[in-house]
Amino acid sequence: MIDTAKFIGTGAQRVLAFGAHPDDLDFGAAGTIAALTAAGAEVQYCIMTDGDAGGFDDRDPEETARLRHEEQKQAAAKVGVKTVHFLGERDGFLEASHDVMRKVVRLMRQVRPTIVIAMHPERKWDRIQASHPDHLACGEAVTRAIYPAVENPFSYPELLHAEGLEPYKVPWLWLCGAPQERENAYVDITEFFGKKMDALRSHFTQHPDVAAMENYVLQQCEENAVRGQLGKGKIAEAFHAVAVNASDTIAGF
Q1: CA–CA dist 238, 253 (Å, integer)
Q2: Which residues are within 8 A (CB) of 153 and not within 5 positions of it... i.e. 6 or more apart?
Q3: Nearest to residue 217, comparing CAs of 201, 240, 241?
Q4: N or C: where does the chain have the smaller number of CB atoms within 10 Å of the terminal CB?
Q5: Is the pLDDT of residue 101 over 70?
Q6: What pLDDT, on the 0 to 100 scale, is given for residue 126?
Q7: pLDDT tens digits for 202-251?
């Protein structure tokens, strides 16, 4: 089990969080992000698709995308995130292509994060709705970008030679929405659960039944705390945390 308290408590972290759609990070990690920013960490978001295929109203996709951009910016601000990048991929068509990976590597080299947060690339068979193909593609693109591309000067050499973006070794990858057997890190968000819910409520185009959404999220977070053995009355978010470049990591092995 990974001790997440040491990451939250230092306040010296720089975090880059990737979601497939506007609202994905708010479901999976907004409480953790609120805790990080409250401790002084800098967190930036990257949303890969415009979310143009989401929602329940008969609205033009371009208008949907515009609204969802605004919703995500508002949600991010509620957990202390000031910078939101949008890759502009089409909702429902995201792939771990080299074009997408190049964009991810570019952003990682620019931000140089201590922790990268992303969606899990493995499907959850117990609730397949949690494994939207765009979620899996987000996780796969980020994972493949982290190793080896972002740290390899020969990967996408134009980023180094034309843009001056030096290779960078990412220390940690935290994947949310993991199958339960992969979970190894739980963050106590009891103090920040209200901010998480405020962020989720910002996505008004996505919630035809706000009360049902809130009840579901609370139940999931309570169950996370039980699995993480955090104690009675606690609320948590769960991750599959991977030490990409630890002190004993040997390059290429």
Answers
A1: 27
A2: 160, 166, 167
A3: 201
A4: C
A5: yes
A6: 86
A7: 998 877 888 898 999 999 999 999 999 999 999 999 999 999 998 777 76
Task: Specify burial of residue 53 (Cβ count, 10 A radius: 0-12, 13-18, 19+).
Answer: middle
Q: What percentage of residues in the chain have a pLDDT greater than 90?
A: 79
Quote the CA–CA distance of 251 and 230 in Å, as a whole number: 35
**pLDDT of the residue at 12:** 67
Which of these, 189, 197, 199, lies nearest to 230 by C-alpha position? 189
For the cut 80, the answer to whether the pLDDT of residue 56 exceeds it is no
What domains can be seen in the chain, in order of their start residue? 5-243 (3.40.50.10320)
**From residue 6, how far is each of 9, 12, 141, 247 by CA, in Å?**
5, 11, 27, 16
The encoded tokens of residue 79 equal 């957990």
Spatial CB neighbours of 66, under 8 Å, sequence gap ≥ 6: none
- Phi then psi dihedrals of residue 94, to 5 deg: -70, 135
CA neighbor of 25 nearest in space, from 38, 12, 34: 34
Residue for token digits 């409520």?
201
Please name the amino acid found at residue 232.
K
Closest CA to 249 of 109, 178, 116, 147: 147
Can you say how many angstroms the Cα of residue 33 is from the centroid of all Cα atoms in its chain? 9
Are the C-beta atoms of residues 206 and 67 closer than 8 Å to each other?
Answer: no
- Please tell me the predicted confidence (pLDDT) of residue 252: 60
- 120-144 pLDDT per residue, tens: 999 989 888 888 999 999 999 999 9
Residue with tokens 């990451």, as numbered in its chain: 7
- Given a contact cutoff of 8 angstroms between Cβ atoms, the answer to whether 98 and 145 are in contact is no
Q: Is the peptide bond before 61 cis (omega within 30 degrees of 0)?
A: no
Tell me which residue of 12, 13, 53, 40 sits closest to 174, measured CA to CA: 13
